[in-house]
């Protein structure tokens, strides 16, 4: 069968460096770090005392108090970003088929804030079983998709994807496939996460996965740098409206770009470490490009996973070099996690948005905090160090890799 074309018509974001698309993009281009001391709880006894929080966030700025109490913060972020994308796409519910509009949403962890709060209450009450009736609906990872579909009456495919840090990219790829197959006409898709609490920080500390550079948080997320010591936790959400091309044209929607390919692979190697040679990363990029019928030489920019971890930042550049050969040196590569931190299950969404905006504005956002390149990384690769670079971009890719060996890649192309 002939697959349908899919385009991006709306975007929304709430991130550590901006609570709207414009704020987020402007701060990306300026190389602003979102890392700062943690305000959500007293972190003085933790090995890591900083994170990339959404600044000055108050649920009541977006929801009434009764509604806010029924939603974990990760779901609140989801609804906020989805509303921005919905408005940006100019959707008129009176003119679309809501049975053919769906929501697929990613979250790697889900309602960990709610889970910790309810468990504390249980212990505080001498283990008397008194739980909030919204405990389970606030905690489960799929509830964000449910909230969004209820708000807009989208009755098409509706579910959550959970694949650690690849969750949002898997959501986007799944929505993409369903539209191509004619099973839906439109999706709100993306991902959200809110795991900056004692359990989240303590758990990643125990794994030795996150940076402990407490004396200088702003430079702690330093992908590809010799001095990197782990990722910086982030939070927030990114949302995209994607739809079938003819459907978008018919309703007169503005079109950012075409979503042309997606790839999904597994390392099948280790629960947290990437394959040392980046074999899964190489295959996922290769599969995504093949899916989109894109030649290697057509790719201009890769928004890489680039978390600022010792192993991952070596494996991914190797994968790019093996796949692209000489063209690897003609690419722009950057890790926007150097600014936003790692949004875990939401990362694929905000980085897809960064890739699309790079294409739209002909500007590649930088990899900040590049002080001394790791000697194991080829210095001829253009990692877009410290400052944004102007470049006309026709094809952009976004990579996300998750604990468990989950790999995802999505490919965007300027509309012909």
TrEMBL record:
It holds the Pfam family Ketoacyl-synt_C. Residues 3-414 form the Ketosynthase family 3 (KS3) domain. It catalyses: a fatty acyl-[ACP] + malonyl-[ACP] + H(+) = a 3-oxoacyl-[ACP] + holo-[ACP] + CO2; (9Z)-hexadecenoyl-[ACP] + malonyl-[ACP] + H(+) = 3-oxo-(11Z)-octadecenoyl-[ACP] + holo-[ACP] + CO2. It comes from the Bacteria. Pathway: Lipid metabolism; fatty acid biosynthesis. The keyword Nucleus does not apply. The active site is at 165 (for beta-ketoacyl synthase activity). Its EC number is 2.3.1.179. SUPFAM superfamilies: Thiolase-like. Keywords: Acyltransferase, Fatty acid biosynthesis, Fatty acid metabolism, Lipid biosynthesis, Lipid metabolism, Transferase. NCBIfam families: fabF, PRK07314.1. Involved in the type II fatty acid elongation cycle. Catalyzes the elongation of a wide range of acyl-ACP by the addition of two carbons from malonyl-ACP to an acyl acceptor. Can efficiently catalyze the conversion of palmitoleoyl-ACP (cis-hexadec-9-enoyl-ACP) to cis-vaccenoyl-ACP (cis-octadec-11-enoyl-ACP), an essential step in the thermal regulation of fatty acid composition. Belongs to the thiolase-like superfamily. Beta-ketoacyl-ACP synthases family. This is 3-oxoacyl-[acyl-carrier-protein] synthase 2. It comes from Marinilabilia salmonicolor.
């Amino acid at each position: 069968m002939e697959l349908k074309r899919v385009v991006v018509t709306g975007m929304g974001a709430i991130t550590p460096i901006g609570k709207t698309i414009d704020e987020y993009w402007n701060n990306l281009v300026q190389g602003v770090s979102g890392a700062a001391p943690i305000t959500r709880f007293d972190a003085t006894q933790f090995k890591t005392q900083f994170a990339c929080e959404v600044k000055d966030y108050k649920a009541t700025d977006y929801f009434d108090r009764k509604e806010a109490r029924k939603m974990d913060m990760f779901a609140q972020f989801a609804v906020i970003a989805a509303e921005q994308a919905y408005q940006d796409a100019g959707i008129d519910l009176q003119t679309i088929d809501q049975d053919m509009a769906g929501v697929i949403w990613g979250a790697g962890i889900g309602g960990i804030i709610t889970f910790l709060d309810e468990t504390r209450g249980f212990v505080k009450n001498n283990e008397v079983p008194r739980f909030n009736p919204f405990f389970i609906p606030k905690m489960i990872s799929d509830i964000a998709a449910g909230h969004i579909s209820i708000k807009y009456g989208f009755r098409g495919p509706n579910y959550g994807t959970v694949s650690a840090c690849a969750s949002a990219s898997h959501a986007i790829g799944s929505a993409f496939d369903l539209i191509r197959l004619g099973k839906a006409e439109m999706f709100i898709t993306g991902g959200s996460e809110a795991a900056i609490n004692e359990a989240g920080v303590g758990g990643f500390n125990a794994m030795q996965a996150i940076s402990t550079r407490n004396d200088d948080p702003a430079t702690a997320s330093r992908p590809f740098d010799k001095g990197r010591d782990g990722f910086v936790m982030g939070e927030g959400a990114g949302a995209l409206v994607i739809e079938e091309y003819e459907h978008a044209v018919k309703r007169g929607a503005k079109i950012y770009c075409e979503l042309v390919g997606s790839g999904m692979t597994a390392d099948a190697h280790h629960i947290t470490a990437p394959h040392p040679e980046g074999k899964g990363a190489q295959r996922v990029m290769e599969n995504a490009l093949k899916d989109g019928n894109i030649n290697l030489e057509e790719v201009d920019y890769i928004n890489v996973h680039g978390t600022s971890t010792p192993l991952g930042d070596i494996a991914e550049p190797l994968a790019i070099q093996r796949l692209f050969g000489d063209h690897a040196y003609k690419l722009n590569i950057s890790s926007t996690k150097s600014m936003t931190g790692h949004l875990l299950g939401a990362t694929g969404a905000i980085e897809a948005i960064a890739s699309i905006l790079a294409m739209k504005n002909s500007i590649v956002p930088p990899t900040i905090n590049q002080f001394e390149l790791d000697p194991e990384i080829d210095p001829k690769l253009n990692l877009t160090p410290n400052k944004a670079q102007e470049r006309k971009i026709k094809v952009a890719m976004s990579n996300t890799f998750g604990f468990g060996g989950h790999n995802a890649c999505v490919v965007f192309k300027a509309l012909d």
